[in-house]
Amino acid sequence: MTFILRRTALLMVASALTTALLAAQAVPTPPTRPIDRELILARELVTRTIQLRNLKAVDAARLVSPYVRSPQAGVYEAGSVQAITVIETEQVLARIDSLIREIDRSPAVLSFRFQVIAANDTPGRDPAIESLDATLRGLFRFKGYHLIGEGTTSASESEGFSLTIAAGEDRFVLNGEVLAVQPHLQALGVSPTTGGGVRVRVRLARMSGGTYQGKPMESESLLSTGLTVPLGQTVVLGSGAPGGPNQALILTVRPEIAIPSRR
Description:
Number of domains: 2
Helix content: 25-40%
Strand order of the largest sheet: 5-6-4-14-13
Order of helices and strands: HHEHEEHEEHEEEHEEEEEE
Number of helices: 6
Distance between the termini: 104 Å
Radius of gyration: 38 Å
């Protein structure tokens, strides 16, 4: 009898344990919280202010903004300070810093040699412009070309220039601006005098001289143009009709790098 009671008790304990185990297995496991990737990236972001020496803050911000893509990252101009502040990962910041160092250079100084050439229907060739004779005859239909004046000036990117060219009794005033140097020459390792190009705007006028009713007479505008000129090459900018013995005045320019850009 005692044996039967003990066996019955053991069976009841085993049944209870089995029921408890089944109940524990039936309890749903709480879902695992997903990893917040944006939070992790935000913890990896670094804020850095990059000083600029020549590049404008607005240009630097536009330059690096395509590289700033992480959530909560950004690029900001540092107000009146010549700098930008970038919030990004260390890897992206290293790339941006390298890019800024490559682009932030002192602008190159360019020299420009301008020539004023008279054209008419008197046959003739001028040895002073022998290298341009074939080009001029291919562009225009005059019989003779001769150099009447020339001058040189210099300017950096985004700067203006001005010079006066004497041509016998005439005086010509030449004004212009260097709009852009393309590409960044030293960054690409091209020659300091050739390779690349410069975009310029040029205006040529003839000084009238004399006065009218006690006031200086205004200059006569002959030519206004803008184009990209290859460095180290002489290019015809255009022509104007001045009247008188010369049927046309032709302006040429040859730009070169006088002082290369520097870091």
